[in-house]
Structures are given as structure tokens and as C-alpha cells.
């Protein structure tokens, strides 16, 4: 009996009590409603501004600087169909985060405002470009890239919660970040071209190859940094690979053929596609 009492003192007996479920705060409800309403407004504004319901398409704005043949780094037209996937993901995210049971989800608490900011910045980019300012568009898209990169880091630092919201968040943010990473380089090339310094002493082809190589390096960096979160880095790689592939295809036909840029873009597309797969497999083996 004495030994049993001693054991009980050393090893606490299991208890059946559980910690109380965290309750949603008024701030949680405000966040959910605001992000949902803001998403509707931002997505609608982006669709209208892009010419989806008539008006001037983005590729015709600013004198066609951002068209598929504006610079050697411009993706061909079909590349932009990825926006329909990204917008769908953002709409689903907005609905999921607004569900009552998701009010206290720590990942959604951490990034919902950032997601809303990204959607507003995307709508702002379309508006600025429609006004004819390629330089202004570059500033906005760099800010958008910074917001998405911040979300990327935050999501990596917070463990998955429920399966559905975690996957919706990771896949949507991953595709968004990957595509905007490529689009930022294309926007930068368009700005340099409009400013009359597109060749910068090396020639348009050389600089385009350099920027494509930078995109491939960035894809590898994303994969290496987020190697333990396949649900996030694989969508990034897919979106970057898609954009780079269409840069390559755009340089093989049409009025702006450039074999060197096309080859570099195809190689970079393959790197972007494989890097997250390799990185996550290596991380799992370790």
C-alpha cells in the first residue's frame, strides 16, 4: 500500500477533464465579416477593371506595355487564365474563414487581414495600370509581393489546424505568391521598356535571361525555405512554372520571337516545377 501511495505521488493519475474551448471574440467576428465583404468588393473590382465585363482589357492599357508582346518577359495570353483559379481560391477562402467554427482558428487569425490586403492591392494594381501608369503598377505589385511573402512566412510558422481551412489557405496563397512572383518580373521589364532603359547596356535578350534565371533561383529559395510544408510550396512551384512556361511559349511564336529567352524560360519552368517536389522529399527523408 505504501508503495502504491508513493507511486501516485510521483506519477500523477490521468484526468478526464479537458481545457475549455476557446470562444470567439467580437474582434474575430468583425474580422470574419470584414474579410468576406472586402473579398466580394475586391474580386468584383478586379474583374470589372480587367475588362471581364467590357471596357479596356489590362493588356491594352498603358499603350500595351503589359501585353503578351510588350517585352521578352511577357507571358503569352493563356497564362493569365490562372487568375480564375486564384480568384476562386480567394472566394472559397473568404467563405471558409467566415464560418462560425473558424472564428478562433489561429492560422486564419494570423493571415486573414493580410489576404484582404493582398486582394485590395491586386484591385489597386489593375486600377493604376488602367490609368496608364506602368511605374505605379510596379510599385503596387512589389507591395503585393511583399504582402504575399509575409503570408508565406507566417503560414510556415503556424502548424496546420483543421484540414479544410489549412489546405484552402495553403493552396490559394501558394498559387497567388507563385504567379505574382513571375508577374512582378514581367512588370519590372515593362517599366524598364517604357522608361527607355530596357536593355541597360546588355541588350533585352541578355537581361531577360538574367531575370528568368532570377525567377528560377527564387523558386528554389521558396522550396528550400518551405520544404516541410508541401501543401504550400508545391502550389508556388506550379504557378511559377506555369508563368515561366508561357513566357517561353510566347517567345517561340508571334512578333517577338527570342530563342535564347524561350530556352531559358523552359529550363526555369522545369526548375520551378521540380524544386519543391525534391525539397519536400528530401525533408521527409531526414
From TrEMBL:
Residues passing through the membrane, by range: 33-53, 80-99, 111-128, 134-153, 173-198, 204-225, 232-249, 261-283
Location of this chain's protein in the cell: Membrane
Family note: Belongs to the TspO/BZRP family.
Keywords from the named record: Membrane, Transmembrane, Transmembrane helix
Pfam families: TspO_MBR
Protein name (database record): Tryptophan-rich sensory protein
Membrane topology, from the record: Multi-pass membrane protein
Organism: Cellulomonas phragmiteti
